[in-house]
Structure formats: C-alpha cells, structure tokens
Amino acid sequence: MGTLEKIEAIRNGELSATENVELALERIRKLNGKLNAFLEINSKAMEEAGEVDRMLKAGEAGKLAGLTIAVKSNINVKGLRATCASKTLEDYVCPYDAEVITRIRREGGIIIGMTNMDEFACGSSGETSAFGPTDNPAAPGYIPGGSSSGSAAAVASAMCDLALGTDTGGSIRNPASHCGVIGVKPTYGLVPRQGLIDLGMSLDQIGPISPDVPGSVLLLEVIAGKNQAEGMMMDVERVSYGELNGGVKGMRIGVSPQFSNLTDPRITGVIEKKVEFLKDLGAEIVEIRLPHIEQALSAYYLIVSVEFFSATRKYDGRKYGKRIESVCGEEVLRRIMLGSYISRREYRGRYYQRALQVRTLIRKELSLALKQVDAIVGPTVPKLPHKLGTRLTPLEMYAYDYLTIPANLAGTCAGVVKAGEVNGIPVGIQVQGKPLGEEKILRVMRALEVESSKSG
Ligand code: GLN
Asked: Whose CB has fewer CB within 10 Å in the chain, the N or C terminal residue?
C-alpha cells in the first residue's frame, strides 16, 4: 500500500491509527533485533494513536493522521532521548519538541521512535554509532549508508511509514540510495533547524525519507516553511507541491561527464538507462559542466570540522551529558582535533578561508549549470556499499560523499529515487535542483518512480 492509499484507509476508517501503530510495533519487535534501526521506541505511541483516532472520529484529521514517523536521534522529541548515537548524550532526555516535531504532531503524525545513526551524524556507513551498526534491509550484510542509517533502514523494512533524516553532506541521500528508498535534502533554510543538534550549522538540513515520492512530498509539506524564531530561513511561509504527475515532457535535464569520472561504471550503467528513459518521456538531455566538483570534498571536510568543533564545545560534561572527548568514537574525535587545529591556524588564512573560496566556486558552478537546465540527474553515491565491519581508511569513507556534498555547499535541493540494482544492491539516482526548486525535482523523481513500478 502506498503512503497516500494508507492515509485514505485511515481516513475512511478501514484502518485505525491504533491498528497502524500496532502494525509498526509488531514489525519493530520482529525485525529490530537484527536490523538495529531503532534506539528507542516511544512508549506513549499507542496512547497518542488513541487520541488521533478520537480526532479522526470528530472529523479533525490532519494531513499525517495516524501515520507512524521515525525520527533520527539528533532531533529533539520531548520525553525521548536524542543521543546522537553517542555516549556523550546517552542520558539526554529531550526537554522540548523540535519545530519539525511540533508540526508533525499538529498534523496527527505519531512519533514511533528514535533511530540509529552515525555518531553525531559523522559518517557515511551507519557504523560509527556507539550503539552498534545498522544492517541494510535491502541488502543484508552490507552497510545501509549513513548517517541517517536507522531512518532509511526503518523505512525500507516497513517498521514505520515515514522518517526524518538530516543531511549535512549526503546523510539522507546516501542511505536512501543504499536502501532503495526515497530521500530529499531540502534547500538550505526551507525546513526549520530549531531543535536539531548541529553537525555543521551552515550545511545541516532536516528532510524526509519515505517508501514512495508522495510520502516525501507529504512530510516535506508539513515540516517546511518559515519559523519566526529562526533568522537563517528562506522567506517561504508554506509549500505545496501540487501536480507531481505532470511528467518531464519539455523539461531540460542536465547530465555531467564529471559524474562518471568519479563513479563505479556499474552504477553509471544503471543511471544511464534512467537518463535514456527520461529522454523517451520527452525531456531534453543537456550536457553541463561541473569542473571543480572533485574539490568540494576536501572543502566540505574542512568546513564541517570547524563548525563541528565549535558546536561540540558545549559538551564539556557540565550541562549536558559527558565530556565529549572522554567518551566519543574515533571519527568524532578526529573531527574535533582537526577542527581545533584549523581554528588555531586560521590567522594565516590557509585552510578555512580557502575552503570557503572553494565553496563559493562550487556554488557558482552549480548555479550556472542550473540556469541552463530544470534539474541535474546523476549517481548519488560513487561506489557500492561495503560489507558491514570492513575496515576503511577515513579517506575511503569520505569518498562516498563526492556527489552529494556539492548540494550542501551550495544550499541547493536534491532528492534520490531508486534507479536499479547492481548484484542485488539498490542504486539510487540523484536529482538536483535550484534553491527552492523542490517541485521540479519531485516531478522528475515521481516520473522515474512511476516508470520503475511499471517495469516491475
Ligand atoms: N558523510 C558526511 C560526513 O561524515 C555527511 C554526513 C551528514 O550528512 N550528516 O560528514
């Protein structure tokens, strides 16, 4: 059953919110022991479902009425733990709801639990969690991708209807690609960040992960839009994506040779088939150039380390939880050390300032390309996921992020939909758009999704 059909079933009383929550809890009981996607379950979910059922009877159903929503553990949900999958915050019980959670509750969505992730969202594999790795439901034994590993795995295994992830350098899109689900990184400033525990505040965005494109559209429509309490937001009150089934006829879609230079040819093969398909549907395929895309990676890791270092200074063991350096894992510590080093050296303008210059360059290149086309399509992750537990060097791990990072540096939007498989492992196609270009990318994603469901 698709997301919209389920909402319909709940609205017309074929399925109650309580029954829907029971279904999710049953799947979690059955599968979570193996997958390790959830770190905590909301013990009040049944009670909240009862309340939603009463509202449904009274005809006051919100847009998400009765749907179960899983939340990445770096987003505050009152009464649950936002541990960031770190020992640092293992006892941190959220005192309030993040703005996105308030909006979800207002529309009748039920928070089913908190999901596993890379520690403080630092990682691309889901393996740096202090509470053990998450398995990939679509390709058991392989990493699910990260850092929103638990959210993607929970959606892929139908332990929830929809999920929230966060994306600083690819953390929604990368696991969506490896798990064969949908994920959207919204334009920077479209979704409130209040209540999100920062990794890199100039890059982080909360976004939806879902089993189908309409599911992501729905969740994005609920969470997006200006929050008066935040200064860094786009001037958009609310979004509504209207007709998504309009197709791609007449759209100009960009592809770049720089993508294939960085990508495993087997993945490129899967993507090229989808590009052919978009052409058959009447899209005009245009070659665009992104000459410096490879430099985005090193600029990103410098910027994110400096911002993360600064964000972690509050974990000194006095106010929240434990002193971070005493309990964190090696990837988090590496970034704190790197961030501290760069910050100290900065008076020479050698690292951070240069990274910012590269960021400007990438933003210009993407913006120029996006002036020529309505959307850019290409691979999401340049290589196939590794087997769980394989030891990678930091640089090998960072190399998963080559293709997702540019959109974060530029603040643009991007989404992922399954394009096919290589040896049984899902491969997602990335659709990138202009700032606030969500409607167009969602239309392209929907066209690709409809095609895949037809060809089975
Ligand atoms: N893999 C990237 C990193 O480790 C991206 C993480 C993210 O988007 N949260 O920083």
From this structure: C
How many whole angstroms from 61 Cα to the centroid of ligand 1? Answer: 36
Does 122 sit in the ligand 1 pocket, CB within 6 Å? yes
Q: Whose CA is nearest to atom 2 of ligand 1?
A: 169
Q: Which helix (H) or strand (E) holds 69?
A: strand 68-72
Token representation of residue 412: 């643009």
Placement of tokens 């360059």 in the chain: 361
What is the tally of structural domains in the chain? 1
pTM of the model: 0.98
* pLDDT tens digits along 134-145: 999 999 999 999
Give CA–CA dist 369/254, Å, rounded.
8
Cα 47 from Cα 52, distance rounded (Å): 9
Q: Are 451 and 444 in contact (CB under 8 A)?
A: no
Residue 306 sits in which domain range?
A: 3-455
Measured in whole angstroms, the distance separating CA 169 from the mean position of its chain's CA atoms is 9
Indicate which CATH number applies to the domain containing 409.
3.90.1300.10
